[in-house]
Amino acid sequence: xxxxxxxxxxxxxxxxxxxxxxxxxxxxxxxRIAAGLxxxxxxxxxxxxxxxxxxFLADYQRLSPGNAFSQxxxxxxxxxxxxxxRLTGDLAECxxxxxxxxxxxxxxxxxxxxxLFDSFEGISRPGAGDNAxxxxxxxxxxxxxxxxxxxVRHTLESFxxxxxxxxxxxxxxxxxxxxxxxxxxxxxDLYQPTRDSIEFxxxxxVTGGTIVMDDYGLMTCPGARRAADEFARAHGIxxxxxxxxxxxxxxxxx
Length: 254
Ligand SMILES: C[S@@+](CC[C@H](N)C(=O)[O-])C[C@H]1O[C@@H](n2cnc3c(N)ncnc32)[C@H](O)[C@@H]1O
What we know:
Rossmann fold; alpha/beta
């Protein structure tokens, strides 16, 4: 216990007066101490190569200022797009908000078109499928997370292969029913649009293509998980749940 307090004192000193490397080390050490004290902490080790990628971190900071909580998810999504570049097919995102994840998808992609589906009026009205088992979870409200199409167009103005489909999911899906997709990002937080997105896009994935669900493992989005689990059960497929909270469905050969 004494050792913990000594490290705590050094951590605080480095945090306040240390060089950048010491400040970072101090942050990691304080997190370790907190993990020890509480028996749990929602962080893993800090020293990872991707955490040194200055270009990514600068893009993230510019696109998602004030949101420190989804760097790992955005990095992971970008990796799925990069890995899919040898496949044929387009990309799609259901739920793009201000365009941060769409930016990383477009940035990592070397071919095809990125199709963006969003109401651009925020989330739809939550239904019975969105009820949480735990009443500590704050429910979503219609219109939360609203961003305009012009904001997203501005964010993505340096990319040419982006198409916009404004409307409530699934109303615009029919316009891309003839296409095939290699990565589809689903991030709509609720049961109904998640269900409709998976049902539409899964059969249109190329072999080896993936659906990346941003909110599958988040307790704040019970409807999204429910919709995905129902689909997986009905079709005999497995979902990979990542520690980031994302859920991954991969299309195997028929
Ligand atoms: C969590 S945000 C997306 C965040 C974005 N993927 C990112 O990480 O940068 C959820 C988005 O889903 C959209 N959305 C929610 N329900 C929808 C529905 N039923 N139809 C269309 N868009 C919907 C909202 O407008 C919002 O932009």
